[in-house]
Design goal:
Blueprint (H helix, E strand, L loop, with lengths): L4 E8 L2 H6 L5 E7 L6 E7 L9 H19 L8 H29 L9 H4 L4 E7 L2 E7 L3 E5 L5 E2 L26 E6 L8 E5 L1 H4 L5 H17 L2 H20 L3 E8 L1
Antiparallel strand pairs: 1-10, 2-3, 3-4, 4-5, 5-8, 6-7, 6-9, 9-10
Length: 264
């Protein structure tokens, strides 16, 4: 069966992390059901500070939690109206993702007694970006920094979720916050009202931070979207790690993870 949505997910270790011998603290994961019944891309960025000693695990737990929750919630999606999907997306799903992430942290800490204390979630602090595509709608979630950009058939670049004014400097909302489900930002887009975007990109903040301006970053996103059309998925998949490594080396020095969702 030919799929309408092509998916690419790539993560590279930041140039500064390579020099310091640190692991990649990003994580990325995607899932695609039969016939594009449910398509998900999730990107997480573990915090790099000294307090967050296990944030690389926290990021891995975050993307797993997001996909597990969405697969379970929408396994019988025909039972839901669009208004019900919107309510679930805004209210129930953030809570369910946090609960699933905390359960994964709890399970890990049970095997590591030194971590099993009142501060255990802080050790695993991570941001999270998620895009869910269903036949009738697209839903975007963002907790913390990072970027979700879409490109239309007319080559217009937009951010379905606007920048969060609370994110100043290195400060970010996080899964390890006191009530992290309240910090999730959500955008619900019915496909019945609008043509879906041609191209969706999710990236950890190491990518946009590698550029001197938002305009330069958006132009790069446009270029990748164009390459998906002119050169094809396989070519972009092969080139993308080199592009990300170069961006980290010349710019942010940070880990970079990029998820691409491209509509044929």
């Amino acid at each position: 069966m030919v799929r309408n949505w092509q998916l690419i997910s790539t993560s590279v270790i930041g140039a500064s992390h390579l020099l310091k011998g640190k692991p990649n603290q990003d994580a990325i994961r995607h899932y695609q059901g039969a016939g594009d019944s449910l398509t998900v891309m999730a990107v997480a960025d573990g915090h790099g500070g000294e307090k967050y000693t296990h944030s690389d695990f926290g990021a891995k737990f975050a993307v797993k939690a997001a996909i597990t929750v969405l697969k379970e919630t929408f396994k019988n999606q025909e039972d839901f109206s669009l208004s019900q999907i919107k309510r679930l997306s805004e209210e129930d799903i953030p809570k369910a993702i946090v609960r699933s992430w905390q359960e994964k942290v709890d399970e890990y800490c049970q095997k590591q007694p030194m971590l099993n204390n009142d501060n255990k979630y802080r050790y695993f602090g991570s941001t999270l970006l998620v895009t869910l595509i269903l036949p009738r709608c697209i839903v975007y979630w963002q907790l913390g920094d990072g970027d979700i950009l879409t490109v239309s058939d007319n080559h217009n670049v937009t951010r379905p979720i606007p920048p969060d004014s609370r994110l100043l400097g290195n400060e970010t909302t996080s899964l390890c916050g006191k009530k992290p489900w309240l910090d999730f930002r959500c955008c619900f887009q019915p496909i019945t009202d609008n043509q879906p975007p041609r191209f969706i990109l999710l990236s950890s903040d190491g990518y946009s931070n590698a550029y001197s301006s938002n305009a330069d970053f958006q132009q790069t996103v446009l270029d990748i979207a164009e390459f998906m059309t002119t050169e094809g998925q396989a070519w972009v998949r092969e080139q993308l790690p080199d592009w990300l490594e170069e961006a980290s080396k010349q710019g942010s020095g940070d880990d970079i993870s990029v998820g691409i969702m491209f509509r044929q």
